[in-house]
Amino acid sequence: MSAAASPVPPVALRDAAVRDLAWLLSSASLLAPSAGAPLAQPWASVADAARTAAWLAALDAQPAPLHDALAHARPVRLGRYAECLLGFFVGHAPSLRLVAANLPLRSNGRTLGECDFLIETARGERLHWELAVKCYLCVATAGTASLADFVGPNLADRFDLKRAKLVDHQLRLTARDEFASLGHAGPWRAQMFVKGWLFYRADDGANAAGAVADPPEIGADHPRGFWITREAWPKFALAAARRDVAWIVLPRLAWLAPRAFDDADVACGRCVPLASDAVIDEVARQSGPLLVAALARDASGGWRETARGFIAPDDWPRRASAFAAR
């Protein structure tokens, strides 16, 4: 079974951290597989998927062990949060055994890199997983984009550079001669675990994801969102308001699975639905792009995320295009 086939839909889970973990395991990869860079498979068979489904359901009913692990790690960065979630999975999942995590590889006093996860499957396969969780905004306006056109919201990261580091360096660590000295006998099959969201410009008030074709390196069916400038936001939000949509600002550790809330979440302040003009007030307090999610009422009376996107400063597209062209 492929990693994109979910044994438990994240939306069926109530606990936010468990839902993030299920999404991390089951969402489509941002990158397509390529020679020497296959995709990680969290479950290898229908039976493995069924065991994972039962494990996730049990964890959702009693999530304290996951909460305790996160409280101990105290992640503040999205990548570290995702690493903690995946580490909990490979350390407790029914079909995997964690051999090592965050294993540094050194030579002559110099650090060559760090292996994210070394894993042994129930069938005895030895896997080297490299994890990356990213949110990139596409700045291409027509035709087929390149990976360089996908940039981080703070213009400190670019998808082509990340892929090159992942494929050309990180995935090759366990194949280096120096790795044998660490005592973890192989061979190890290196696989990439690249999850996240890609955002496409939607200044005309509709998601324009189809206006630009993705490059072949990008995986099919990856999670998509929109991005828009502050100037264009009122028109965009007006169209959404006609569909009785409310908005929330997503803190960084809420950037994984689509959000879901009930009235208790609203009552205790975990969810504060905002009108579009209140979102503008939040945007005005930020110097960079702000990630927001659209919420709509579901059949049970709760709130479910229906879309998400970045609201960027008006000069951000110019700076982002220059960063993409470097």
From TrEMBL:
Alphabetized InterPro entries for the sequence: DUF1853
Pfam family, one: DUF1853
Protein name: DUF1853 family protein
Organism for this UniProt entry: Burkholderia pseudomallei (strain K96243)
